[in-house]
């Protein structure tokens, strides 16, 4: 149900800027959403899609620019203010309390000022809204027992009950089956035809072409295509605009690959409520080589890393390290065999904040007896080894006894490098190694990885930062929907090829 020509836009954003710690995430970004349409925002990770919509939803406050909803200028400072203005956002990571039922989550979201006072009242309105919008939701079920698709429906119903006339969905089909995705996107179309306005943040052109009316493309925090009719945009246009015309390729190709260090054959793992499925993944990684895996987040990268490290079981396939099958080996045994990790979150999975730098550096070698037995550690030796690492890796402001929590992001990453690039390294899995770092720290991390590889190690680089993949890798693979969908020598990578695979239409 389109509004007449000249009617106010559902959502208007002009000249939006937003920086975090001095780094610009949005630069003069613009977006116009009309009532009665499904409007896609497309771009690779870090393009600014989610940041722009988080500004619209009141999660972030813009540094500058103009915003309006239905023609009325707004300056939102919280999601509650956005909900009051009629805009609701369903985030990639749902805002639901797992120990509560769906009805209890809705009751919590409505707040104390609502006329709905009891879980029974909330259950009644959830059931009614569910029937009205055609999304089946059981209000009495606990969120922890719901599938991803069911949680998503619960979140949408909650947002609609909070008064959303504008619905923003961030990568809503990332971990859904094809049938679940079609059901959700058909709902979005139906909702827009009833007079609502829907924003779909995505990187999948097939979804854009099949279900959206207009498309906006973002790159590096800027709007590079502003609200073009989907019928006027080709797949090649989307691929080129997502990635840009220029890619920084690694300085030199791999002239003489060494022996195969890591071979993965037919690796598959079933999806669960909390993870993406992996589909028949296979690749070889040679000594002295960096194989970069590019992809938009949520396409199985975390799951692949967990399977390679032994943190998740695989359902089929094999993982061979130096010719030895480690598919069923415990994580500690894989480490002893030479497999090391720079995780995507340095503090969540790599370091223990409360422990000293010396303790963090020794964590992985203590079990082998490097610093004495389990009941009597040689603390002096640990501190001496830590002092050497602090000097070798230029860990600024660090002492062996200093807690890791007091380190900056760059220096914390250097502690990880000092530990993981140590003796016995054969294969390094580097997952987004420069995420959140400044330019100087980024270059230090990348140089350290290059030196380790030049010394004979192999590196599997997994990153959502396309330029990081291109600047380091000898070969580039693309991961999409739990599988590797293409692989080329870095020098043969073109914007059209990689953009097409990232968008899921090649």
What's this model, at a glance?
Keywords: ATP-binding, Nucleotide-binding. With 506 residues, the protein is α/β, with parallel strands linked by helices.
- What would you call the shape? globular
According to CATH, the fold-level topology of the largest domain is Rossmann fold
The tally of strands reads: 20
Mean pLDDT: 88
Per CATH, which architecture of the largest domain?
3-Layer(aba) Sandwich
The helical percent reads 25-40%
Q: What is the terminal separation in angstroms? A: 33 Å
Structural class: alpha/beta
Total separate domains: 3
Per CATH, the superfamily of the largest domain is: P-loop containing nucleotide triphosphate hydrolases
Work out the radius of gyration: 25 Å
Oligomer: single chain
Adjacency order of strands in the biggest sheet = 6-7-8-3-9-10
CATH C-level name of the largest domain: Alpha Beta
Beta-strand percentage? 15-25%
Please work out how many helical segments DSSP would assign.
17
Topology:
Elements: E1 11-20, E2 23-33, E3 38-42, H1 49-56, E4 64-69, E5 72-73, H2 79-85, E6 87-90, H3 102-110, H4 119-133, H5 148-161, E7 166-170, H6 178-193, E8 197-202, H7 205-211, E9 214-219, E10 222-229, H8 235-243, E11 260-269, E12 278-286, E13 290-294, H9 301-309, E14 316-321, E15 324-325, H10 331-336, E16 339-342, H11 346-350, H12 357-362, H13 379-392, H14 409-420, E17 427-431, H15 439-454, E18 458-463, H16 466-472, E19 475-480, E20 483-489, H17 495-502
Parallel strand pairs: 3-8, 3-9, 6-7, 7-8, 13-18, 13-19, 16-17, 17-18
Antiparallel strand pairs: 1-2, 1-4, 4-5, 9-10, 11-12, 11-14, 14-15, 19-20
Helix pairs in contact: 3-4, 4-5, 8-17, 14-15
